[in-house]
Amino acid sequence: MVTEQDVQHIAELADVGIGAGELENFTHQFNAILEYFDILDRVEGQGEGARDHYNVLREDEVEPSLPQEEVLRNAPAQEDGFIKAPRVM
Questions:
Q1: Largest interatomic CA distance in the chain
Q2: What is the pLDDT of residue 51?
Q3: Is the CB of residue 72 less than 8 Å from the CB of residue 78?
Q4: Which one, of 29, 27, 32, lies nearest residue 9 by Cα?
Q5: Contacts from 30-39 at CB under 8 Å and sequence distance 24+?
Q6: Average pLDDT for residues 58-83, to the nearest whole number?
Q7: Which of 2, 53, 72, 77 could hold 30 in an S-S bridge, CB 3.0 to 4.6 Å?
């Protein structure tokens, strides 16, 4: 649980001024946020392999690319068989 002294210390570390009226509000908000994290910790920990399905990605596969003529046909500008882009520097 976060106390008002903890919030005051965090504010001093961040060089942020907090008034006495705001201190109680921020303390409540910090505790509410930490309660959400506690709920997530309990939910994520349920069941064997609960985290095994995060970011399941497909395998990379080599596929044929478009023919050069088709790519250049879609380009706004071209020069010597290459896509011409605006100068960056």
A1: 69
A2: 61
A3: yes
A4: 27
A5: 30/2, 30/6, 31/1, 31/2, 34/1, 34/2
A6: 91
A7: 2
